[in-house]
User: Which sequence fits this backbone?
């Protein structure tokens, strides 16, 4: 019965999922709706469509359709870099001397170097189909901006990216990749928007935050004919698109009759984790199977573990809808952690509800521990991981070590969301012993949380 498991379980091209899976359809307690910041009433499709593409608004609000067909044009693009391999980390297991069986789903096999392309191509497709001229967005570490500029180049759409100033300065190569794909990149906060000028007046010399950049991108989208705003994480539509990760992982496991005992992913806004766990969580919600699901967040930006479950703004400028989520407060500006993709103050409303209802756990990891795990992994498995992904690696290794103590042969799946080639300044800091572990104090967190709307 037991087939030899290869290092990489590849699926065929025809096994790329034909539909995305919408976890919300199987949730008894649906995530709370987005609220209009003025009226505090649920945002209507009409209000949302001033900011987002129409088809994406439909997906955002759809809580009942479990499977949503992936248009052929998107599947054709997926074929360029999917299916992504599910890798059995034999070398890591051996090095750790653990009886655990470790698997990772690798999403770094495309130029953007992360899973973000899975949603970028979908969002660009719907913008094109609506006949728009272009889209605006923000990017922190740069992976989302890169993915979106690739997707916009493919569909010949204009792409305006507001890049958090500190990253714009520290990551000139990311910026150039975006420009190579035809995007315009503006450091945020900038003088080009009203909200940017306001933030600069209040905080001169600020190096920016995702929340500021979102405010600027939304302003530009809503003030320019033929433009809409797109977002690379947090939203339900993004989790929906990212379900290709989990659907492929499950199909690969099913080929060999394997069931993971635990699923681990890093959590910034929740999109890769939401996508990786989607079909497994579906089984859990329907009572068909049980899995331990663990979100890993940076100790410097601990939304799940130290945040509040409350309505909050998604942006610093407070112009976006209110979302009920685990949040540190939209005024919280996290310490300059090197895992830029995990620095958002809030969390997906879907994952927030699932966490609140006890369907998943969350833990934090300290930055230096994360880089230690990253290097360990790079040396045994060959892949140079993104700092974000390395949060999941750290906890997967910890769990595998626990199995060594107890002798349990658990099957662990973790999401390896991307590669770290653009994060070598961070690796340099770590290698030089110059990296610190900033953990916010309770007083700092309370300060931002006291300003929740
Ligand atoms: C953006 C990013 C993340 C975090 O975002 P989520 O929406 O929480 O998935 C993780 N890893 C990589 C490589 C990223 O680019």
Assistant:
């Amino acid at each position: 019965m037991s087939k030899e498991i290869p290092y990489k379980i590849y699926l065929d091209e025809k096994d790329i999922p034909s539909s995305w899976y919408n976890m919300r359809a199987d949730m008894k307690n649906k995530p709370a709706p987005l609220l209009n910041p003025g009226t505090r009433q649920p945002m209507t499709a009409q209000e949302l469509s001033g900011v987002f593409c129409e088809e994406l608004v439909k997906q955002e609000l759809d809580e009942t359709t479990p499977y949503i067909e992936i248009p052929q044009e998107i599947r054709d693009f997926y074929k360029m870099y999917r299916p992504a391999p599910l890798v059995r980390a034999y070398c890591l297991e051996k090095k750790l001397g653990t009886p655990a069986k470790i698997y990772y789903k690798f999403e770094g096999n495309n130029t953007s170097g992360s899973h973000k392309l899975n949603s970028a191509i979908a969002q660009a497709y719907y913008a094109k189909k609506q006949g728009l001229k272009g889209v605006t967005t923000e990017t922190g570490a740069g992976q989302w901006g890169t993915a979106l500029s690739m997707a916009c180049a493919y569909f010949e759409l204009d792409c305006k990216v507001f890049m958090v100033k500190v990253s714009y300065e520290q990551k000139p190569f990311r910026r150039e990749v975006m420009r190579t794909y035809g995007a315009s990149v503006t450091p945020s906060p900038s003088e080009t928007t009203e909200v940017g000028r306001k933030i600069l007046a209040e905080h001169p010399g600020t190096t920016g935050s995702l929340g500021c950049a979102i405010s600027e991108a939304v302003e530009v989208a809503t003030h320019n004919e033929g433009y809409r705003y797109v977002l690379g994480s947090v939203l339900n539509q993004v989790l929906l698109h990212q379900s290709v990760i989990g659907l492929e992982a499950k199909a690969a496991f099913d080929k060999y009759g394997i069931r993971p005992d635990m699923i681990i992913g890093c959590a910034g806004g929740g999109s890769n984790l939401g996508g990786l766990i989607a079909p497994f969580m579906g089984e859990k919600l329907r009572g068909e199977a049980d899995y331990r699901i663990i979100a890993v967040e940076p100790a410097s930006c601990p939304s799940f573990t130290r945040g509040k479950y409350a309505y909050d703004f998604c942006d610093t400028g407070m112009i976006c809808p209110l979302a009920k989520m685990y949040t540190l407060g939209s005024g919280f500006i996290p310490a300059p952690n090197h895992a830029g993709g995990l620095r958002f103050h809030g969390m997906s409303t879907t994952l927030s509800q699932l966490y609140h209802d006890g369907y998943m756990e969350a833990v934090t990891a300290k930055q230096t521990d994360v880089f230690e795990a990253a290097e360990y992994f790079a040396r045994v498995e060959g892949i140079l991981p993104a700092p974000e992904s390395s949060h999941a690696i750290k906890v997967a290794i910890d769990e595998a070590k626990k199995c060594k103590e107890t002798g349990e042969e658990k099957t662990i799946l973790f999401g390896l969301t991307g590669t770290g080639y653009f994060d070598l300044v961070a690796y340099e800091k770590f290698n030089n012993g110059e990296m610190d572990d900033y953990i916010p104090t309770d007083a700092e967190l309370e300060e931002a949380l006291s300003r929740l709307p």
